[in-house]
Amino acid sequence: MEKISKEDTETVNGEIQQPTSIDGSICGYDSLHHLLAANLKPHLFQEVSRLLLGLNCAKALETAVLPESAKALSSEHNFDLQAFCFHADKELMREPRVVRVGLIQNSIVLPTTASFLDQKRAIFQKLKLIIDAAGASGVNILCLQEAWMMPFAFCTREKRWCEFAEPIDGESTQFLQVLARKYNMVIVSPILERDINHGETIWNTAVIIGNHGNIIGKHRKNHIPRVGDFNESTYYMEGSTGHPVFETAYGKIAVNICYGRHHPLNWLSFGLNGAEIVFNPSATVGELSEPMWPIEARNAAIANSYFVGSINRVGTETFPNPFTSGDGKPQHADFGHFYGSSYFSAPDASCSPSLSRCRDGLLISDMDLNLCRQLKDKWGFRMTARYELYEEMLDHYLSPDFEPQVISDPLLHRNSS
């Protein structure tokens, strides 16, 4: 993205203010990576990138080649398109296991005052074009953002938004099943689920659609936030599906939905069940979480020796009725800017540049899944972990008469003479 022109900016106290037409930019750039690339000399940018993004097999992360048809869709429909390659070392007894993986971030299309059916169908139309670009690029596994088929209305505490909820085999799944079959692609579809068999209970759920269009299974969000605007238990509670890993035609995948990324044991459990790629479809705003965003998933990839795909929706969603939150702020009609910035992390501590903070986007990565075992062999985290100690600690912690293991300095509370 080019920097915005001088006449489009406003200066207050010597600082450039962002015009609303590019809400979410950083001083006119749509990502930190682009800001640094445009303002640092090449040799300085190379060194800064090494420190920020790490190295993959001792080299800077390589870009991947995409077909012209995908680039044309990106240009025509104005969505960010980036692609990278995560390599593994060549092995003597195993062939490379290269999988092409995609992440989609997107804004809603129509105002939240439009009819719910029109809102959903408009999102379908937008997403189909981006999924077509993924299909043209040969993506094997594609993950969409949290509750992709609706506005993220869960903080308004208005029950009418429950109308967007669907059964596992509902309209959104059927829409994606056609595309999964067409492109021989596994698709992870996070939706608002209506559990018909259990009294129409509502869940925040990811549906895993196989490359033949079949439903492999589902996973429900394990951790529900109660922070600021994000008090989502009005709509759904903690999930009931544990930490499933889904064995697909292209690898073993899992889904750590949104707020679960703040819980290290949640990441660990997917790893213990054998995940090679964990997706983190999310909806989060800059004021709340942006300093944490580049860190948590990358740490999880390192600690658990798997790849992570982090997805955040983009744009500002304004609702017809102002609402209040638990942090004492005056009532407001939006949550703030969903800052996009979707990215991939690898088990060797390398990561990709992120997608735009301002635009829809498709991020693609070729990843050699052999890297997962290579990093397990290198660091030995599974062998050096003391699970028996953790088990004992957690068992004590859950006891009603738990007392922290604290050893006090015997002189700490001694009366001074």
TrEMBL record:
The record's annotation in SUPFAM superfamilies points to: Carbon-nitrogen hydrolase (SSF56317)
Q: Does the keyword Transmembrane apply?
A: no
Q: In which pathway does it act?
A: Amino-acid biosynthesis; beta-alanine biosynthesis
Traced from the root, the source organism's taxonomic lineage reads: Eukaryota, Viridiplantae, Streptophyta, Embryophyta, Tracheophyta
The protein's name? Beta-ureidopropionase
GO MF terms listed in the record are: beta-ureidopropionase activity
**Keyword list, A-Z:** Hydrolase
Which Gene Ontology terms describe the biological processes this protein takes part in?
beta-alanine biosynthetic process via 3-ureidopropionate
What is the top-level taxon of the source organism?
Eukaryota
Q: Where is the CN hydrolase domain?
A: 99-369
As recorded in UniProt, its EC number(s) are: 3.5.1.6
Q: Which reaction does it catalyse?
A: 3-(carbamoylamino)propanoate + H2O + 2 H(+) = beta-alanine + NH4(+) + CO2; 3-(carbamoylamino)-2-methylpropanoate + H2O + 2 H(+) = (R)-3-amino-2-methylpropanoate + NH4(+) + CO2
Question: Which organism does this record belong to?
Answer: Cannabis sativa
The UniProt entry's sequence similarity note says: Belongs to the carbon-nitrogen hydrolase superfamily. BUP family.
